[in-house]
Amino acid sequence: MKTNFRPDKRGRREPLSPLQFALSLFGCILVFVLAFFGSRLLFSGVSSVLGAAALLPGISDVTAHFASNTSLSEENGALKERLSLLEDKARIFSLLVRENAELKSELSRKEPAQKILLARVLSHPDHSLYDTLIVDRGSEDGVIVGQQVLAYPHTLLGTVAEVSPHSAKIELLSTPNHAFSVLIGASLLPAEAHGRGGGVYGVTVPKDLAIVPGDSLYVASRPDLVIAVVGAVDPGADSSSHLLLARIPANIFEIPRVFISLTP
After folding, report:
1. Of 9, 16, 95, 153, which has the most beta carbons under 10 Å away?
2. CA neighbor of 203 nearest in space, from 193, 217, 213, 212
């Protein structure tokens, strides 16, 4: 009996050619390499990000450290300026005390008994008229026009110009164009001072006089009273003279209180 039997080739695979086999093998190796090294690269990247994040607090600490150093440097500068100012004030005060003692010794003057009235400053020159002070004492406290006003027991500021029952206006001797006789330094050299405003005086003296910054100006009629301290010696209008610039040894823009002499 004749049959038409043909083998079924649908379930069989064709064998790979050498080229296909090589390409398949190379692909497997490539996938393995990428999988292995790719995971390491990923882990390294994550570690780098985490490391950078961990460094952020350190960077913040460094920034804060530099900011703190800058602040400390500024504070030190401010403290040095304040110390310098205090040293200047201490030097001027020491000089005034020494010169006053020398004057008392030379002139053999006894300290006159004075009745002093303490007054609080209500208005300074930056808020009142130029080179004037307003104080909280008036006629009901015994204040009258013409009384002397002092910053310290031996520093003359000015005189009482106007009086009301509970306040008074003080005109400073440094008022512009106000002139009066003074004595300069421990040698008590006579001269004439002129107010220039703002607590400053100008004094023209012969060039041959030995006057230096730090010398005091005294009231000619009361050598026990200081009115200013020489701050600078400038060349005058001609070669034969010097211009002395002297300032009240008190800050008239901030002084909190003054003393009014009630002694006639």
Report:
1. 95
2. 193
CB atoms within 10 A of CB 174: 27
Domain that holds residue 141: 116-172
Q: Are residues 199 and 217 in the same domain?
A: yes
State the pTM of this model.
Answer: 0.56
Last residue of a domain, one of 85, 109, 133: 109
- Indicate the SS3 state at residue 149: strand
Measured in degrees and rounded to the nearest 5, phi and psi for residue 128 equal: -115, -175
- Whether the Cβ atoms of residue 187 and residue 200 lie closer than 8 Å to each other: no
Please answer whether residues 258 and 124 qualify as being in contact, where contact means their C-beta atoms are separated by less than 8 angstroms: no
Domain count, the chain: 3
**CA 60 → CA 57, 63, 66, 98, 148, distances in Å?**
5, 5, 10, 56, 63
Burial 119-157 (b: 16+ CB within 10 A, else e): bebeebbeeeeebbbbbebbeebebeeebbbbbeebbbb
In a domain, 254, yes or no: no
167 and 179 fall within a common domain:
no
| pLDDT < 70 regions, the chain | 1-69, 71-72, 75-76, 79-114, 126-129, 236-237, 264
Distance CA 170, CA 133 (A): 5
Cα–Cα distance for residue pair 168/136, rounded to 1 Å: 7
